[in-house]
């Protein structure tokens, strides 16, 4: 969509024009917007039309995934594109039109997802999984206040009922505590009664699980995977931001969370190879570029580590995005994501992975919430740490905190 509008602005209206004109290469922002458009369009268009359950395929290894996969797709997608939906400052008219289109679709999507009379009414309370993706949906609304403000009073009431209904689910003694806490953070942010104990338990337990040098355990044990980025660090940061004005008791803890978040962002940036690949370690690798949600979030809130520039993070994440989405088989013939990291690789998916789960990859798009004139987008492309080192550049040493 962005490419078509981009060419139109250049006065290119026919195929024949290409014989005498080669358009400039797309900017990084255009690459990101094209990825957003391709990822979001089938989910939000169908959900807005009350046809998501009818049209979305459900790839997975267990028979129960259709009970959860649609909320997974909506919640995880909104968590990633929420800051962009919240943006009102645009220097490009075609991007503004695209945002307005998806903003309107999102409002309709919320209506159908939370209306018990809709075909696409989603499961928020049966089984354990719904608390996970109710939390991602809540996080998306925390990241996009304008979406929440844009919902009608009846739809808001349905959203609140849906979130409240998820309280019957007991989270696991691991990162899942943060899912319950994120829902309560949503209530706190928007002026509803909230359960302080669900918040306090999750926050203080993760304080106990901090292991050092910017890393938390996933529960009592350490797991070598990307869950510090998929969930733990971005959830802790967003929860603290949402509640701190009302819960000053967490002020010192929030400062510690921020120090650790900055350190982990430095680690994440160094994990990206010169080619845009990263170590294939641990669970949920089919979330693709979602492995870097935390780095993307730190870029969004402009809290990157010292010596890590916004431009080098943009360049690194652009390359990761291209490596994880542009291979054949990433999307099926109708535009839905398929299980894999580099193309279609079904064996990579755990038993809890299904089509909807894969939309966590949208969280890499968080910096689109920064306007195009922000240094993240406006500064010239720059090499990231691994690319510098492996091209012979001398850099300062790395240090633990």
TrEMBL record:
Protein name: DUF2264 domain-containing protein
InterPro entries with a match to the protein in the record: DUF2264_N (IPR049349), UCP014753 (IPR016624)
A Pfam family the protein falls into: DUF2264
Positions of the DUF2264 domain: 28-384
Organism superkingdom: Bacteria
């Amino acid at each position: 969509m962005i490419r078509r509008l981009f060419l139109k602005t250049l006065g290119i209206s026919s195929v024949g024009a290409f014989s005498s004109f080669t358009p400039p290469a797309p900017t990084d922002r255009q690459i990101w917007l094209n990825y957003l458009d391709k990822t979001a369009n089938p989910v939000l268009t169908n959900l807005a039309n009350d046809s998501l359950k009818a049209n979305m395929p459900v790839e997975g290894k267990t028979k129960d995934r259709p009970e959860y996969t649609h909320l997974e797709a909506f919640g995880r997608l909104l968590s990633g594109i929420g800051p962009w939906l919240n943006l009102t400052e645009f220097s490009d008219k075609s991007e503004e039109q695209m945002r307005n289109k998806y903003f309107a679709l999102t409002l309709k999507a919320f209506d159908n997802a939370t209306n018990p009379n809709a075909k696409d009414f989603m499961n928020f309370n049966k089984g354990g999984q719904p608390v996970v993706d109710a939390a991602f949906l809540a996080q998306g609304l925390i990241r996009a206040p304008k979406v929440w403000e844009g919902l009608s009073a009846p739809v808001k009431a349905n959203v609140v009922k849906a979130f409240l209904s998820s309280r019957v689910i007991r989270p696991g003694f691991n990162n899942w505590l943060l899912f319950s806490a994120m829902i309560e953070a949503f209530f706190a942010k928007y002026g509803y009664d909230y359960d302080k104990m669900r918040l306090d338990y999750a926050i203080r337990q993760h304080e106990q699980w901090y292991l050092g040098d910017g890393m938390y355990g996933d529960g009592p044990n350490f797991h070598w995977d990307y869950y510090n980025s998929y969930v733990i660090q971005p959830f802790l940061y967003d929860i603290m931001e949402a509640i701190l004005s009302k819960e000053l008791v967490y002020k010192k803890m929030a400062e510690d969370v921020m120090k650790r978040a900055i350190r982990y962002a430095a680690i994440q940036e160094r994990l990206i190879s010169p080619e845009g690949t990263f170590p294939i370690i641990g669970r949920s690798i089919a979330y693709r570029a979602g492995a870097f949600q935390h780095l993307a979030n730190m870029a969004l809130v402009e809290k990157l580590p010292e010596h890590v520039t916004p431009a080098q993070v943009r360049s690194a994440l652009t390359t990761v995005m291209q490596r994880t989405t542009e291979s054949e088989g990433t999307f099926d013939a109708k535009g839905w994501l398929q299980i894999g990291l580099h193309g279609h690789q079904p064996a990579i998916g755990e038993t809890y992975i299904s089509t909807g789960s894969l939309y966590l990859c949208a969280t890499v798009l968080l910096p689109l919430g920064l306007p195009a004139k922000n240094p993240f987008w406006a500064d010239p492309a720059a090499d990231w740490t691994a690319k510098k080192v492996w091209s012979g550049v001398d850099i300062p040493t790395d240090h633990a905190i």
